[in-house]
Amino acid sequence: MFSGSIVALITPMDPTGAVDYDSLKRLVDFHLSNQTDALVIMGTTGESVTLSFAEQLQVLKAVLAQVDGRIPVIAGNGSNSTADAVEKTKILSALPVAGFLTVTPYYNKPMQQGMLAHYQAVAGATDKAVILYNVPGRTGVDLLPETVAELAKVPNIIGIKEATGSLSRLEQLQALCPADFLLFSGDDATCCEFMLKGGHGVISVTTNVAPALMSQMAKAALEKNTELAQQLDQKLQGLHHQLFIEANPIPSKWALLKMGLIADDMARLPLTRLEPIHQSAIEQALKQAQINV
Fold first, then answer.
1. Whole-angstrom distance between the N-terminal and C-terminal Cα of the chain?
2. b (16+ CB within 10 A) / e for 213-224
3. Are 133 and 163 in contact (CB under 8 A)?
4. Which of 119, 133, 219, 258 is catalytic?
């Protein structure tokens, strides 16, 4: 259903903090013309936690209308409240989204049994595909492979975005989950090796600024063309690291502004603009990826 290079799309904003729909349209066109395989809209990179649900709904509707079925659109539906995540999922299921990306509940620090019940409730609220999202560095909880294997028994839970960056975690998931359970890297720095070792794709921050190169690298890795995949990934390593020099998506927004794709690098508080001291490092990473700014 999903594979390859999937972008965790940023949400462009104007200087007042309102969503900039003109810039959003440019970004979607940028991905449609540069072989991005699918879009994640209103994921955590899209600053969903600081947008109202009404805003999230409006952004999703705008992107869905523009994409018009050309590539899959995956909606972020996560919350640290199970009731909120279920209600959000029910409403978004009326839209022509291809599926959902559901982050683990953050801050509450639920036990494995709590996360199991959370995801079962969310999946039960829709007949669309649900992709689990494990990112312990930002949520404070780690969805363990044994819990993932139990969730893989739910018919519409079809995969996981695994962002620990651990390749041994990939091996554990492969050993415990069905062969058709989709495994996506959520860690750009290790995503090439993740795919070479049998992962199905990457849900990526780097793809925001280097979609064509990420698409080529993912294609090579999925075809097990190790030499080409690693050669392409080497050009991307600077971006993989420097786009996290400050909290995501601050660096990506600055890079996209430099590339002329968005009109402002505004983020919603408590996120701020990129500190000037970090700008040269990102410029160098863009040049390494052969992106002109």
1. 35
2. bbbbbbbbbbee
3. yes
4. 133
133 in active site: yes
Indicate if 109 belongs to the active site: no
139 is in an annotated binding site: no
Give residue-wise pLDDT tens across range 42-59: 999 999 999 999 999 999
Q: To 10 degrees, what angle do helices 250-258 and 279-288 make?
A: 70
User: ∠ CA 143-145-147 to the nearest 5 degrees?
Assistant: 65
Q: Token pair of 181, please?
A: 């359970």
109-150 pLDDT tens trace: 999 999 999 999 999 999 999 999 999 999 999 999 999 999
CA 181 to chain centre: 18
Query: Which residue in 100, 7, 8, 16 sits closest to 268, CA to CA?
Result: 16
pLDDT, residue 264, reads 98
Rounded Cα–Cα distance for residues 126 and 130 (Å): 9
Rounded to whole angstroms, how far apart are CA atoms 262 and 246?
19
130: nearest Cα among 143, 139, 140:
143
Q: Select which of 88, 128, 161, 253 is catalytic.
A: 161
Average pLDDT of the chain is 98
Give 163's DSSP letter: -
What integer is the mean pLDDT of 86-107?
98
Angle (CA) 1-261-58 rounded to 5° is 60
Question: Could you identify the residue written with the tokens 């890079």?
Answer: 255
Residue 207 known to bind ligand:
no
Tell me the whole-structure pTM to 2 decimals. Answer: 0.97
Domains along the sequence of the chain with CATH: 4-223 (3.20.20.70)
Q: Is the dihedral of CA 135, 139, 145, 147 positive or negative?
A: negative
